[in-house]
Specification:
By secondary structure, the protein is α+β, with helices and mostly antiparallel strands. The chain has 3 domains: 137 residues, Rossmann fold (3-Layer(aba) Sandwich), CATH 3.40.50; 58 residues, ATP-grasp fold, A domain (Dna Ligase, domain 1), CATH 3.30.1490.20; 31 residues, no CATH class. The protein is built from 9 helices and 11 strands. The strands form 4 sheets. Strands 4-7-5-6 form a 4-stranded antiparallel sheet, sandwiched between helices. Strands 2-1-3 form a 3-stranded parallel sheet, sandwiched between helices. It has a two-stranded antiparallel sheet with strand order 8-11. Helix 5 packs antiparallel against helix 6.
């Protein structure tokens, strides 16, 4: 099949996405697919169809290592001449010309349902959840409300918007940006002395914070494909909690 693997983008998880895209591309190449790894934000200026892009930009092997710190998106914007669109030149045209688009995007429009809705309009086939599922899952507060409504146990929570008064906090708590992933901006607070630093860390990431009671215990992850549950994985960080560095620096993202 002729496949576009979409990665990168303009989100705090850009580097994680590029690493995922490299690994996915290599796996698909090993299955004899024609694979083009494409940065959704940068796009391609000189080609607008899959065959031309594939012939010019294909690689036998893709590699990408996640840096220790999240990407500087302002620098990226300047490199792209302050491009306003979140989708780069010829991305839609190349994806339309391919057989299917594999979404290796993390965060931003790749996970909040916007890209999926756009692809539905353009008739582009893609992997992963629909725009409805993506929208509901990426918004932590909506997800919490859905779980509570359906009787699923979830830690107590409150919501804080930076333009409103901070609610009363019962420590220890966890601050989470409402619509970000990869643990970027997640802060565990044990007392009020850590509050100001936590707010400063999150304010440039999200306008809305999910304030969640801290629950001590073991952490498990279960992936689901269709109606099938994948094997249970226990997450045991070597130190601290499972933050950005712990996720992507302990095991290098090389292929």
């Amino acid at each position: 099949m002729r496949m576009v693997v979409l990665a990168g983008g303009l989100s705090d998880e850009r580097d994680v996405s590029l690493a995922s895209g490299a690994q996915i591309s290599n796996a698909l190449v090993s299955k004899n697919h024609d694979v083009l790894l494409l940065d959704i934000y940068k796009g391609l200026q000189d080609v607008s169809d899959f065959e031309s892009a594939y012939k010019k930009y294909r690689k036998e092997t893709y590699t990408y290592n996640v840096p220790k710190e999240k990407p500087n998106l302002e620098v990226l914007r300047k490199q792209q001449n302050n491009q306003k669109s979140l989708i780069g030149p010829n991305v839609l045209e190349i994806c339309q010309d391919a057989d299917i688009c594999f979404l290796a995007l993390h965060g931003g429009i790749g996970e909040n349902g916007q890209l999926q809705a756009l692809f539905d309009i353009y008739g582009i086939q893609y992997t992963g959840s629909s725009y409805e599922g993506s929208l509901l899952a990426m918004n932590k507060i909506i997800s919490k409300e859905l779980m509570a409504f359906n009787g699923i146990k979830t830690p107590k929570w409150d919501i804080y918007n930076f333009d409103k008064e901070l609610p009363e906090i019962n420590y220890p708590v966890v601050f989470k940006p409402n619509d970000n992933g990869s643990s970027i901006g997640v802060v565990i607070l044990n007392n009020s002395d850590e509050l100001h630093k936590a707010l400063e860390e999150i304010k440039d990431i999200s306008n809305t914070i999910l304030i969640e009671e801290k629950i001590d215990g073991r952490e498990f992850s279960v992936g689901i494909i269709g109606n099938a549950a994948l094997p249970v994985i226990e997450i045991i960080p070597k130190k601290g909690f499972f933050d950005y560095q712990s996720k992507y620096q302990e095991i290098r993202n090389t292929v």
